[in-house]
Amino acid sequence: MASRHRSRERALQMIFQWEASGDEPEQVVASYWNGLATEIGQPAPAEDQFANSLLHGVARRAKSLDDLIRKHASNWKLERMAAVDRNILRLAVFEMQQGDTAPVVAINEALELGRRFSGEKSARFLNGVLDAIRKTLERQSANAVE
Questions:
Q1: Does 1 have pLDDT greater than 50?
Q2: Pick from 89, 82, 78: nearest CA to 129
Q3: Whole-prediction pTM value?
Q4: Separation in Å, CA 126 to CA 84, 85, 113, 114
């Protein structure tokens, strides 16, 4: 079984491919795993169900994720963000909303992805946006309990 971090890397790559191609998530999943098999010169490792589920969740909720990101990325238009940053934000916000991953873990993973795929400045940007979203989600959750 793949580590959660590796799964998030794979999910990010698939989300990036999904956005760039406009293909349905199932097509992206098949293409990604077939491409990985070709790249490593042997049958692909067992498909990573966590990575696949992250892609499907982000694709299914892209509009609401984008709306939340727009609201918290002050002075940034979603369309003008670097594609990798935009997709890291989508992935992290989806995980925070799902509730299966602690928000601090989702944010830390997003920062690691940002450093690896985009750079240190990106990580600072991601941290600011994601922390603002985390606070909003916590307030909404607290209000729902009351």
A1: no
A2: 89
A3: 0.91
A4: 11, 7, 10, 7
